[in-house]
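4.2 Preliminary Data

To establish feasibility before requesting continued support, the project team ran the inverse folding procedure on a target of 185 residues. The structure was first converted into the token representation described in Section 3, and no sequence information of any kind was made available to the design step. The complete token record follows.
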């Protein structure tokens, strides 16, 4: 059950905006979310007939692996020291952005907006939205500076994934609209 900030739980204790979830609970939830994302992305990569989609979802599964490793280290450190580690900020790799643009163009040629792969992109957007919401929400309520920085960085990383997936989804929809003369002009 979730409570609003400054409300009291049934035991009379104040709770933060994330409800009664402890730091450990949030870390466990984050790791599980990343594991589910990795499993989903790996499954899509193994089942698609599109090489571009396979590359994209394989790359995303690898990134989820990085998130799992990162969060697992934070979890272990938190369990031992009751604090978060100081983290280097995540920076986007410019070559990765170029690769994603090339793969986006290939994907548009290889899949349609109503295909299995397009549906997977929509589901992936939902995964990324959940991750952004979890991380941004925890960053907002964290009182520890390193915890706030950790969740802010993760939220930003997931926003990048979401933004890229949204761009592909938009391009696929526009392609269908164009092919079917759905444009109002």
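Position-by-position output of the design step:
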């Amino acid at each position: 059950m979730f409570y609003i900030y400054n409300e009291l739980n049934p035991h009379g204790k104040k709770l933060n905006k994330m409800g009664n979830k402890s730091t450990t609970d949030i870390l466990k939830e984050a790791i599980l979310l990343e594991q589910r994302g990795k499993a989903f992305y790996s499954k899509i990569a193994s089942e698609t007939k599109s090489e571009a989609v396979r590359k994209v979802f394989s790359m995303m599964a690898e990134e989820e692996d990085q998130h799992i490793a990162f969060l697992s280290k934070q979890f272990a450190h938190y369990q031992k020291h009751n604090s978060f580690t100081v983290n280097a900020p995540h920076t986007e790799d410019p070559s990765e952005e170029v690769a994603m643009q090339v793969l986006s163009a290939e994907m548009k040629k290889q899949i349609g907006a109503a295909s299995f792969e397009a549906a997977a992109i929509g589901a992936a957007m939902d995964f990324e939205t959940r991750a952004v919401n979890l991380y941004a929400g925890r960053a907002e309520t964290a009182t520890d500076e390193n915890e706030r920085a950790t969740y802010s960085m993760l939220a930003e990383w997931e926003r990048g994934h979401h933004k890229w997936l949204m761009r592909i989804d938009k391009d696929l929809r526009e392609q269908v609209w164009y092919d079917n003369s759905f444009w109002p002009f």
